[in-house]
Amino acid sequence: MIRARDQSLYTGITTDPERRLIEHNCSAETGSKGAKALRGKGPLKLVYQAEIGDRSEAQKMEYKVKQLSKAQKEALVSKQQPLLQFLEKTN
Hints:
Layout: E1 2-3, E2 9-10, H1 17-30, E3 45-46, H2 55-66, H3 70-79, H4 83-90
Antiparallel strand pairs: 1-2, 1-3
């Protein structure tokens, strides 16, 4: 999860979080390679990451995280709990 300057949280998947954060930060300024949702919202900061098995499973987890409320996402970020453990408690 990435925190934007306006304190919003962006959720996405990647095989290389550090590289993707750099791309998003560049995008926030130039509009290339990053998510449209983050343009103009830099500087961006990586605040949570979890390693998930394969791409299919990562997409399922991404969807579940995106369904969480802002308060639940903030709790996940602040506690730095394992994602699967956190999602089990929220269901």
